[in-house]
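Before the break, one more example. Copy the sequence into your notebook; we will annotate it together after we see the structure.
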Amino acid sequence: MNDLTAAFKEYATGTLLVLDLIGTFVFALSGAVVGIKRRLDIFGVLVISFAAASAGGITRDLLIGFVPPAAIKDWRYMAASVLGGLLIFIWFPRSQGTSRVRNFVLLFDAGGLALFAVTGTQKALGFGLHPLMAPLLGMLTGIGGGMMRDVLVAEIPQVLRSDLYAVAALAGAVVVVIGHQLGAAPVMGAVLGAATCFGLRLIAIRRRWQLPVAKTGSDETR
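Here is what the structure looks like once it is written out:
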């Protein structure tokens, strides 16, 4: 296990770390947009940014025993989330309508979802998780930040009500595992997995693809 951990740490200093930091930054942007939409002050916006950017990664690291979690051990994660929050707080056009704000949130959120689903899966594989379980951890990494963001602003998390949110993350994670099993380069698996998740998420939003929703008696009488 020590050799496996050492090998993963060496890999994490390269591509995986870069993707993780980009995902942190992008999710911080989505968190900041939501904070501004709710008219929070600068501290509130930065808190939402950090929560959106870090909750999924922290949960992932705790579950695989990578402690302390990277998001609170490495200052670069905090810097990425604060930078994203400040950029949105300073430059985001406050006059944009509700639909434009929603589009910004969805775009940033889809990007963060794709990157975190990929890095979460690759990190799980690096720590020796079974190929059937690694995609689940990747999915959890992708949806965790968005869930925490929505809970903090008293909204039902998108994963429970949105167009193929967790399913898109799981699809991207599965692509990463398939690439790993076939011996493909990690970068290639990451690119294909992220593209699958991001593309599926955007198509689902555009075409309003949703999983089946249970109908209650009141729905049938309308």
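The chain has a mean pLDDT of 83. The radius of gyration is 17 Å. Try to locate both features in your own notes.
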